[in-house]
Amino acid sequence: MSDQDTPPPFDENPSAQDAAVPGVAKLSPPPPSAGVVPGLGRMPESEEKTMALLAHLLGAVTNVLGPLVIWLIKKDESPFVNDQGKEALNFQLTILIGYIMAGFLSVVPVVQCFSVLFIPALAVAGLVFGILGCLEANNGVAYRYPFAIRLIK
Question: Is 79 within the bounds of a domain?
């Protein structure tokens, strides 16, 4: 049996053991935390999380007005609230555009039945995704809505 056939000795130090084993790739460092906001470089503090949570929750309840007020008040104080306020506002503006389109469709006799189904679907989507945004913002994670027109950048 040659020296190449024998396994390397066991070492309790994992970095030394990885270095001693030829042909084994080293593991890359773990990815950055999901809660870290790009450009912020840290986890948002409790008040920032609360204001971001309110932006999403008020969007689910008041449509555009709630996120607009939160975003205008706190956008210069916190990058996290600025990001999440814009995200909630953009989503609620998208929902508002959907309501306007459904209103126009409701006067066309051929497609009235679609608008009758479309309006409640928009309401449910606004509420469900707003609550999901609340939960993620409360954890300090930057939430992105699955469909939103990014009107405010």
Answer: yes
- Which tokens hold the place of 8? 């390397």
pLDDT digits (tens, 9 = 90+) for 106-132: 888 888 888 888 889 999 999 999 999
Q: Report the distance separating Cα 134 and Cα 41, nearest Å.
A: 21
The tokens 């950048």 sit on which residue?
153
Give, rounded to a whole angstrom, the gap between the first and last alpha carbons of the chain.
Answer: 67
pTM comes to: 0.69
d(CA 84, CA 125): 18
Domain count, the chain: 1
Question: What pLDDT sits at residue 85?
Answer: 92
Residues 66-96 have pLDDT tens digits of 999 999 998 898 899 999 999 999 999 999 9
User: Cα–Cα distances in Å, from 61 out to 11, 39, 88, 130?
Assistant: 59, 30, 12, 9
In a domain, residue 91? The reply is yes
Q: Is residue 13 part of a domain?
A: no
Residue 19 lies in a domain: no
Domain interval for residue 96: 40-138
